[in-house]
From TrEMBL:
MF term (GO), any: carboxylic ester hydrolase activity
Keyword Cell membrane: no
Keywords, sorted A to Z: Disulfide bond, Hydrolase, Serine esterase
Family statement: Belongs to the cutinase family.
Organism for this UniProt entry: Mycobacterium tuberculosis variant bovis BCG (BCG)
Pfam families given in the database record: Cutinase
Top-level division of the source organism's lineage: Bacteria
Full protein name: RvD2-Rv1758
Signal peptide feature range: none
Keyword Plastid in record: no
Length: 143
């Protein structure tokens, strides 16, 4: 099951002061896998808003393990480069779904990253998209 969150300018809950819940680091499949695309101009990784989102989610999942994947793309004002993020996020989601079918996927993005994730989860290729745009996620992955 894929859950998508797109953060544009929404307030973010304060991070919990509790110790962080288990995070997957040994290559095992996590209970929850967060795939987050940072906003324009943010440094590589999940970005500041992504960190806040992950902290808020971590406080809600209890003892479940969590994996975090920061979408690898330029996140610059050269918006056509967002295509790299669409490919990267889509590939990561499909690989995670195939290799870790019991993991719950949570997709999110901020600003340009929200557009990246919106494209990744689109049921059809939007009008005006480049010819080399990735195909929509297979239905069995999106289910």
């Amino acid at each position: 099951m894929v859950t998508t969150w797109a953060l544009l300018f929404a307030p973010v809950p304060a991070a919990s002061a509790d110790p962080p819940d288990p995070t997957v680091s040994d290559g095992a499949c996590p209970d929850v896998e967060v795939v987050f695309a940072r906003g324009t101009g943010e440094p590589p990784g999940v970005g500041g808003i992504g960190e806040d989102f992950i902290d808020a989610l971590r406080s809600k999942i209890g003892e479940k393990s969590m994996g975090v994947y920061g979408v690898d793309y330029p996140a610059t004002t050269d918006f056509p480069t967002a295509m790299a993020g669409i490919y990267d996020a889509g590939t990561h989601v499909e690989q995670t779904a195939a290799n870790c079918p019991q993991s719950k996927l949570v997709l999110g993005g901020f600003s340009q990253g929200a557009a990246v994730m919106g494209f990744v989860t689109a049921a059809a290729i939007p009008d005006g998209a480049p010819l080399d745009a990735p195909r929509p996620m297979p239905p069995e992955v999106a289910d």
